[in-house]
Amino acid sequence: MPQKKRLTALQEAEYEDTADGHSFGRERMQQAFESSRVFRPRLLIHGRFGMGQQYVASALLNHFEGLHVQSLDLPTLLIDNTSSPEATMIRLFSEVKTHKPSVIYIPNVQEWYATVGQTVISTFLGLLRSLRPTDPILVLGLLESENEEIDDSIKRELFGYSKKNRFLLPQPSQEERKEYFLPLGDYLRTSPTDFPDPKNRKKRRLETLAVAPPEPEKAPAPPTKEEAKAQKKRDRQTLNMLKIRLQPIMDQIRTRYKKFRLPVIEETQIRYLYDEADPGTVTSDVPHDIRATATFRPFEIGKDVHGVPGLVEQAT
Hints:
Structural class: alpha/beta
Radius of gyration: 49 Å
Number of strands: 7
Number of helices: 12
Strand order of the largest sheet: 2-3-4-1-5
Largest sheet: 5 strands, parallel
Distance between the termini: 108 Å
């Protein structure tokens, strides 16, 4: 700690080799040096009950941010009803071995040691012995008892005989306790009006602003030549698709229903109107009124009450 930032292949290529032809040997020497700095890291934090072991452990785990931290507390081992605690222990330990460097965190070691059972303890000790001495896997334990009250088997099997693996939280002195509660005394002597309570502050008077007018609508920009060409192409494709969809319906209507096969007014009854409108057709020079009474003309061109042009039936 702290962890060294690993260089990428591109960053490594920016530096020249310091040894002439012996870079591989120097790399092995560097790896051996890094591994020799680690030897079965263990740490047991203990002290009297109420000495803040939980806060110290939380601060340590926060300091280990970036490492793989695996908690082996009782809820983690017993929460899965479909798996035994031994199988859960093996699965969690395999994750620890995969993500190195890592931390194994065991809170309340003495209660954990007495509750999980001998099978789980044997499994954990076997997995712990399977690690190489230079593996960067820290076993962090938490205990709320004095050094004399710690079971010798816990110290021997989990944290070794070295006293450097155990840290005793000392009892605070009278001066340290006074310093801790000194801010509380200052708060008690402070007037209630001096606290930053929103009720004790004057309310700010805000200026009444007029309602902003709505933003004027912008006229749509005229389409460019490319947009107009694309729109015409889309319209043509839509029209062709409409024709393809309607053609089967029109064919079915013409074959099944005769009323749709013939027009409402037969063309023979109004053929004279087409002839009169055609300038290439020679007609009589008799006035229209006389000719209308002399011949049978059931329909005439006219307009309805709304001024819409159409055919007027003379009989009605």
